[in-house]
Amino acid sequence: SNRKWVDLTGRTPPVALILNAVKFASQPDKNLLPEPVIVAQVLPTPTVQANSDIIYTTATNELRINGTGFVGSKKVEIYFSPPLFKEVGYEVISKFPLSVDTLVLRIRHGYKWREEPGPLKVIGVDTGGGPVKVNGDEGV
Which of 11, 64, 73, 80 could, after both became Cys, cross-link 127 (CB 3.0–4.6 A)? Predict the structure, then answer.
């Protein structure tokens, strides 16, 4: 659906979602809010671009994840299939807040991107607004 909390066009996220009034049907002219209140900071929905580059289980030190909606993020969580855990198997070496839509990861000593050769898929990403599936249940 094309429904959005906030139109982010031409704006730099996060953008405040402001509640201006609270009213009851019994008194529709009476605003129960003394002043407007910020109820959320709206971020763009992140995406991850598919990549068919060959990486090696241990010989490839860095992995770059390109997408959209990363700029301005103070943290990014990536969900992999098969599972790979941040600060255990890899570390994020990008500096936060992100100024580009790329996240750079480095494999930690003694770990592998995967145990067996095969695709390493990003199945989800969280830039601060909660986890979002990537390409439905398929991942990229």
Answer: 73
Q: Are 39 and 129 in contact (CB under 8 A)?
A: no
For the entire predicted model, the pTM comes to: 0.80
136 — alpha (psi -120 to 50), left (phi > 0) or beta? left
* E strand or H helix at 67: strand 62-68
Structure tokens at 108: 């930690």
Phi-psi region of 62 (alpha: psi -120 to 50; beta: other; left: phi over 0): beta
Instruction: Provide the 8-state DSSP code for 69.
Output: S
Q: Terminus-to-terminus CA distance in the chain, angstroms? A: 21
- Tell me: the pLDDT tens digits for 21-63? 999 999 999 999 999 999 998 888 999 999 989 999 999 999 9
In DSSP terms, 107 is beta-bridged to 90
